[in-house]
Amino acid sequence: MSDEKELEARLRGYLARGAARPAPSELEARLLKQIPAAPGRWLPQLLAAAAVVLLVVGVGFAFQNLRAQRTVRPAGGGVVSPGITPTPSATVGSTPAVGPTASSGAGGTLGLSSIHMVSANVGWATGDTDNHVNGPNAGVFRTVDGGIHWQTVTPRDQQWVDIVASSTQPQASYQTTAHFLDGERAWVAGIITTTTDSTVTVFSTSDGGAHWQAGASFRAIQSAGAYLDFVDNSHGWLLLEVHQAMQIDRVAIYATADGSHWRLLTDNTACNIDGLTFNSDSAGWTSSACAETGPSVATTHDGGRTWHAQPLPFPPPSVESCGCDSFAPIFLSASIGVIPTNGPIMFMTSDAGRNWSLRRLPARAAFQDFVDATHGWAVDPETGTVYSTSDGAHSWNPVSTIPNVTNVPQLDFVDQSTGFALRGPGKSPLLKTIDGGHTWHEIQPTYS
Amino acid sequence: MALEDQAPSTDRFEAIVRAETGPLFGVAYSILRDVQEAEDAVQETMEVAWRRWDSLRDPQKRGAWLRQICVRRCLRIHRNLLRRSWLADRSESAASIPTDHDLDLDRSFRGLTRQQRAVVALHYQYGYTLDECAGLMGCRPGTARSHLARALQTLREELGYE
Predict the structure, then answer these.
(1) B159 contacts in A (CB within 8 Å)?
(2) A322 Cα to chain B: minimum distance (Å)
(3) Which of A319, A364, A316 is nearest to A341 (CA)?
(4) Residue A434 included in any domain
(5) Which domain holds residue A335?
(6) DSSP letter string over A297-312?
(7) Could you tell me if A44 lies within 8 Å of chain B, comparing CB atoms?
(8) Can you list the domains of chain B with their CATH numbers?
(9) What ipTM, to 2 d.p.?
């Protein structure tokens, strides 16, 4: 038996013994005893009292609320205001791209996996459509009407088209990752995964996805993670899992200074594969999802040639654990930046990332998004409670609740008032706020 | 959907506690390797489940829903030495002492980060794909993959498989 299989067998045996460990006998009894003290025991009485109050108050508001179709209730202190589902618009200003995902235009159901709005009306998204031509979450979409209608602008990957046409590789799949610089300029990495490896091709557009330029291709591991970042038309970076030996990801970083020719900067073994951010042609960061010392990032000051860990001010795991991972920084200006996490902490810088300060959030508030140094939002992925801050994350207040959030919700604000939210990847409606997150209106996105 | 699935009665919730405590404890212990912390995770899971029962849209997915809550609790339980001292009279307060006969693997596994232990346990013991692990843990697939790769690398190094 090889070392690899021996370790796996040993590990499986160890895990099976742990999973089979019986719960302490008193645990179940203790849980049963606590049920009477749970809030739910008060629920019938509470509901009865609330019903009486609502009946009285409700009569007064009944006529005013007739127009309301959906209501999102603030979590604390906010004003409950009804939202009206916008009517989808059929007018889109850009020309459809010629590509495998271009549909008949009938406008089916669109499942968004991520959104990147650059203004209240214009934005990009990745996701999936009903036809699954490219594969789950392989589509690239653009909206010019605030997310109501999305134009399919997925670049045509000729190699993928050939694979689909030949049907010689039924196991092959297609994914995309993207970097959107503004409303017109974007780069997409098309990832074709076969039974042996992946081929990653970088596409670029400067006209909102109407036309794409196919660029360099890279060989990568199966189902490779790929992350793109550009600071302008010319200077960009590609972080790619290029090799996998003994299940160790080797991460390569390529750079371009002219937008089309790429050179390998480093292929050191690393596990920092969850994001890449540059805020100049020399200074960049990767998220460090494997840090043993708590959340951290790796940083470069020479354009990506050399990297070193940049510890973040968080107590070591022996003292405190946030149970969270840091994401790649988001720079709101040359000097102001945020490192979001999927836990109740985050980090901010006001000196271009040289120093980061810890900010704590309410328990379970995560997936932070900021529009400037002071105004930000976060969401509790379990309850959907949305929190906002207006003092640089020093204090947070619950402002609303997004019902039925899933595991990885996304907030995307474009200014202090207007923002968008995804409950999570999938075919759930897009949510939009125009009052800083106090109320949310559902949009059922369509595509063509 | 039955009404009783939307609003659990005390009796129904007691039945759920009886049915799910054991499996949830198994998940929690697989990740935490500490009886007290696993008990805390299960207790918090049940508390959250009781409070948020109306958010369970598909009763058929109750088990998966509880497991997701439990994994999240496991990742966020903070060691609280003062509280642990108050709990010292629990019958199994010393249960964090390694009890597995594979002492070397047990020592190395306990040295992994909580996220690494979670993805290893969910992937190898419970058969979740890495995308599913990421969903359960509330992180991105790339992050889950990183945690698994790093965990395996650490185990290989410490157990002499390189």
Answers:
(1) 7
(2) 6
(3) A364
(4) no
(5) 156-404
(6) EEEESSTTSS-EEEE-
(7) no
(8) 1-97 (1.10.1740.10), 99-162 (1.10.10.10)
(9) 0.85
